[in-house]
Design brief:
The chain has 5 helices and 5 strands, in the order H-H-H-H-E-E-E-E-E-H. The chain is 30% helix and 16% strand. The longest helix has 13 residues. 10% of the residues are buried. The protein has a 3-stranded antiparallel sheet with strand order 1-2-5, with no helix packed on it. With 112 residues, it is an alpha+beta fold.
Length: 112
C-alpha cells in the first residue's frame, strides 16, 4: 500500500437504525390508503404481509398471482442503476424465487 494512502483517515460511518412498522401501525397505514388506487393498496398490503423485498414486489405481474391457490410466485425483481436504468432481473436468492402464500385477508384486496 502506498505511503500516502496509509495517511488517509477513514471516514466515520454511522449506521442508522432501521425504522419498521409494527402490527399496531398496519390499520393506520391501510386506512390512509382507503381511497387510493388499487395498485397502491395491493402493493402496501403485500409489503406488510409477504416479507418480499421492494424489488420483488415491483417485479410482480398479475401472472405471478394465483387467486385459486392463494399463492404468489416471485420470478423476477425490478432494480435500478444509473448506468442501466430500470431492469427486471432474477431475484436475489434462490429462496426468493419460490411460491409465497397469499394471506387470506389480501385475496379480496387483489380481486377488487
Amino acid at each position: 500500500m502506498p505511503a500516502n494512502v496509509r495517511k488517509v483517515k477513514r471516514p466515520k460511518w454511522n449506521q442508522t437504525e432501521m425504522k419498521v412498522y409494527t402490527r399496531e401501525d398496519f390499520p393506520v397505514l391501510l386506512a390512509a390508503l382507503e381511497h387510493e388506487p388499487l395498485i397502491y393498496r395491493v402493493l402496501v398490503n403485500l409489503a406488510l404481509v409477504s416479507g418480499l423485498r421492494q424489488g420483488e414486489l415491483l417485479g410482480l405481474t398479475w401472472d405471478n398471482v394465483d387467486l385459486d391457490t392463494s399463492t404468489i410466485t416471485v420470478t423476477q425483481s425490478l432494480s435500478y442503476t444509473i448506468t442501466e436504468g430500470l431492469q427486471l432481473k432474477e431475484p436475489k436468492t434462490k429462496g426468493s424465487k419460490a411460491q409465497k402464500p397469499l394471506q387470506a385477508k389480501l385475496s379480496p384486496c387483489c380481486a377488487s
